[in-house]
Amino acid sequence: MNLKYRSTILIQNILKRSVLAAKPVKNSDASFNPSNAQFLEDLYETWLKNPEKIHPSWALYFQNLVAEGADFQRKPPTAYIGKNEMLLRDFLQKYQPTQGQRQSYSIANPIMHQSTANCSDDIEDHSAVKSLIRSYQDKGYLAANLDPLGITTKNRHEKIEKWKKDSGIYKRGLDKPERMKEQFLIPHNTFIGPNRMTLNDIVRRCEEVYTDHIGAEYRYINDSDKIKWIRQRLETPGAQVLSREKKILLWERLVRTTVFEAFLARKWSSEKRFGIEGCEVLIPAIKQVIDECTFHGAESYVIGMSHRGRLNTLVNVCRKPLHQLFAHFIGLEPAEVGAGDVKYHLGTSVKVMNRANNKVIKISMIANASHLEHVNPVCLGKCRAEQFFAGDRSGDLVIPLLIHGDSSFCGQGIVFEAIQLSDLPHFTTKGTMHFVINNQVGFTTDPRFFRSSPMCTDVARVVNAPIFHVNADDPEAVYHVCKVAADYRKTFKKCVVIDLVCYRRSGHNEIDEPSFTQPLMYKIIRSKPNVLHDYTQKLIREGVLTEDREKKYTAEYDKILEDGLTASRKETNVKLTDWLDSPWVGFFTGKDKYEVKSTGVNEKILKHIGLAFSAQPPPELKFVVHKGIERILKQRKEMVDKRITDWSLGEAMAIGSLLHEGIHVQFSGQDVERGTFSHRHHVLHHQEVDKVTFNPLKNLFPDQAQYSICNSSLSENAVLGFQLGYSTHNPKCLVIWEAQFGDFANTGQAMIDAFVTPGQTKWYRQAGLLMLLPHGFEGMGPEHSSARIERYLDLSDDDPDNIPPLEDPLFAIKQLHDLNIILANVTTPGNLFHIWRRQIYLNFRKPCIIFTPKFLLRHPEARSSFDEMVEGTFFKEIYPDNEASSEVKKLIFCSGKIYYELKEERAKRNLLKDIALVRIEQLCPFPYNLVQKELDKYPNSQVVWAQEEHKFQGPWTFMECRLNHLLKKTKEVSYVGRPVSASTAAGSKNLHLRENENLMNDAMKL
């Protein structure tokens, strides 16, 4: 037990018994006030020489202070009088004893021995009581009455009894009737309430606060201020009492939630809708959090959630027009081109009046696929971008809300990856409000089989988020928890979790039969009234509500729903534009979507960027640069002087020129500041002072846009999703995500499949995300070679059998506009410069994936002249062979770094007149028109596709059908590359070299 606490209890016990047990002071005229230095020094000297001669309370007091580091040799004991000792001081001043009384209280007095024994008993009693209180505070949530079905709480009283036994109150006999009424002094830092409470009252209050319908899990937080703050809001008597008006508001929201679900069930009984029955309190909970946050000044909310309860949230939180939602139920087709998505996956963005505060607020709900929790980082990224563009550095204006399922929250790794971003400086949204719909079953899986942790929310403990478990059948407890949670987020700018422990009235969906797997649970559910019924009866008993008002309000809302259905039947189609979660107001207005603009830049700007990027930090900063960096900066300066760029300069000039034009650039991924292959060095580190850095690209122009580059957590899935979400908020920024190796994007494949490549087709949502995937076979093994180009080509909707007229001058731009994704394997820094800038210069947005090299980052031939980047220049979809004769015997098409290897081999074998090499830089959309020109240029040549990847990996199958389509059966394209393999690359360096040698021999064979 904490010594200071025991000392406090003993001092208070002295007051209680009026026992002044201390050594008499030497000076009979001295005041006995313990603030008197002489008194304390005498007492301290006695303790040092003979501790048993002073009262145990003072012995513990001095012992505790010394243990905590007090130095009485340098500072008198007077300085250590704390607030707890103020009680003793006040008592002694009020009841000043005479000299004779002081002598009588000497340790030699037999009365003192009896007093000491009594105080020892009191120590143990108080210790037992404090231990019991701590058990409720620390573990109360484990025995709280949280389950509305009563299934998981059957043994809750056994847990409480064990705490009582472990605390020692039974051993001390405190459970006896006469002692249960005994009053104990309760310090405020132990439990908030009256200073003196009987054990009966202590137990009753602890159970009300910690083991009733709220289970607060917060004692693990490593910040005492946060713990005290939460205790203040939970333990203060009367904290949960609601006014009549608030009860009525809460009831009205429950009515709308419940009646809406009943209306859908009545009209479309066989439709999947993933209703919220069993957790109807979710909607009032979200609305209460929004009310509280709006009161604190918030103006915008970004919501991410899976399908359960989504339709109700759209209508009753976002206030989506009913006719737009019902149009999906009556089977109308989309007005715009695209496949669309099921209604419970769609997003929205609306501006509504918050009735509680009379403020207009914005609510965005992010479209989400059936990957449940994968929306989390997308939501956080969008929220972070909105905060950035709103200048909301404190996170007071834009709030993220994430609604989870219980089994997915603890089962899906993306939850952990996303929540780990919460306090990272470049990713934080200053606290996320998390709701968990804890219906205690995962599809058909019992909680005993979908988690190992005690609670489904335990993943949130890793970021010290407080977790408020609450019985979802107690709306007033939910209301209180939501207020506390919203206030906590406002006060501390940290994540907080509200765990709504509920049930699922139907199966996984409305046409599923849950009794197959949960027969006992659903036997209880079928006989259980819903929360609205119970709360209505409660308010009627309290006189807050009448039956007439209940019937009238229910009928009024049902009429609103009927009117919405009538209006939906007048619609002719579903407008996907009504379901955009990130509408770019004004971006498309007055623009020619097929406009082609040069992505070149004035040479003066290029040179300025190059010189700044190659310069040492300003002398006044006294910044010590690494010797290796000094050499790199010198080499950059030499290239700028020669008007050429390498890869790092090409990147810097693309970024710097966009910043100069007012385009914000957000760049993240693992090790992006330095670059995995040590080529970038956008962030320089002071070699003698920790955490001092310099970024030259942030200091190029006085009025430039902000450049944010940061190393991310070791996550592909969540960080990729975050960057995607960031890119959807505002089209006037370049958002880049780079994988450490292209292979590592494998762990982000669900994000790519669900959000990146099909986003516009499913949700009519454009995004200009730029993904950089390092790719190239260099003998580094199966996980450090291939970005799996074939996967992304398979995800494109480039149809080789549906080619527009090749002579159309707008052929290339129409391809970019009509297809879903851009894939490129560029080979020069100049072309990289253009394709990065093209992401912004297009009058629309498409995700772009670039298979960046490793080998070419410093290759002497992978250089570009300024002439390739100045005004009037463009990205090149292919590089023709300007050296080869039109009479060559073999025309080799290739992509990526293999071009340089083929070129070197061709020169070595003196085959320039026999072999032409054409690089295809943009793989998708496939440049049919430009490739056709190359085929026409070499009519008598054999046509070959050469790649370093294994057969049926890389671009081969994508290229084969398209090249053959252009060849029109006059000849067939043949393959040169590695043979088929289940692995992406050889693990042996020798095998890699042998494969490469065979590849070159096959390619050069005539």
Explain what this protein looks like in three dimensions.
- With 1006 residues, the chain is an alpha/beta fold.
- It has 5 domains: 3-108, no CATH class; 118-212, no CATH class; 244-579, Rossmann fold, CATH 3.40.50.970; 603-775 and 825-868, 3-Layer(aba) Sandwich (Rossmann fold); 878-1004, Rossmann fold, CATH 3.40.50.11610.
- It is built from 35 helices and 26 strands.
- The strands form 6 sheets. It has an 8-stranded mixed sheet, with helices on both faces. A 7-stranded mixed sheet has the order 15-12-16-17-19-18-24, with helices on both faces.
- α25 (647-660) packs parallel to α31.
- The N and C termini lie far apart (87 Å).
- Mean pLDDT is 89; it is low at 1-36 and 82-117.
